[in-house]
Amino acid sequence: MNLDGLHHITAITGDAPRNVDFYTRVLGLRMTAKTVNQDDPSVYHLFYGDENAQPGADLTFFEYPGATPGRAGAGMVHRVVWRVASPAAIDFWAERLGDDGVATERGDGGSLIFADPEGLAHELVVDASGDEPLIAEHPEIPAALALQGFEGVRAYSARPDDSAVVLERLMGATRRADSDTFELRGERRGGWIAWDPAPDVPGRQSAGTVHHIAWGTTDADMPSWIENVTDAGIPNSGYIDRHYFHSLYFREPGGVLYELATREPGFTVDGPVEELGTTLILPPFLEPRRDEIAARLTPLPDPRAGWKRVQPAQS
Hints:
alpha+beta
């Protein structure tokens, strides 16, 4: 029973329109769902990903309008690492981001590091995994140069030794030699979390910070994961139905909030893949409150309205 790397990553924004512009227009991701936080329906929950909304590329945001800038500290993820196909893709993104006024720097091995408008850090690395590329269509970004899904995350742990124990003994992670990087790989794909020394300044969860990360599983394996986490003495949420997937939440010893999320049923539970992200969708238990909920949200247009159709992305 293995976890299929990162399923999704959820962060916080204080400005939904600017957030939509950056992640769809600049980074070329597809808005795959425009919905609300099921635990707080007064705020958006925006999903961005590949063309078919597959686990492994879903970056999501809760919007708290006007939220002050946050700061990553101990117990928080501080960087999202994405895959691209080649060094040429790295060069493409350095130029594209620079043309949009986004500062970049080169990291180890020629990677590219930058931040979104609210300070959430990202890194692009050349993919060596062999996993299926998860690509979205965009009229300005050739498929060969597009983002291809998550590679991993970098985080700060308040208790790195205990964080390692949970990853290795409970979650089945493999520790890379001579490093604090832990890979979780299943039948479909893999991903990793790397621990960096925590800064002295305390973290503050707000705009531009990661709220939680989710590791991929299946409906068939979820009961066993719930049993294993509970038997390990870790407080957890138990089974939660998130409409698009089914979840288990728990906080690892170093403070990072983990979710285990299933592939099933997927985003097309609301309609065909062609319609993803075009309108506000609500889970069935919130549908009777649609007018009330919609009235409190900032209108967001379909980012693809008026697009000329491009050829389907090639993997």
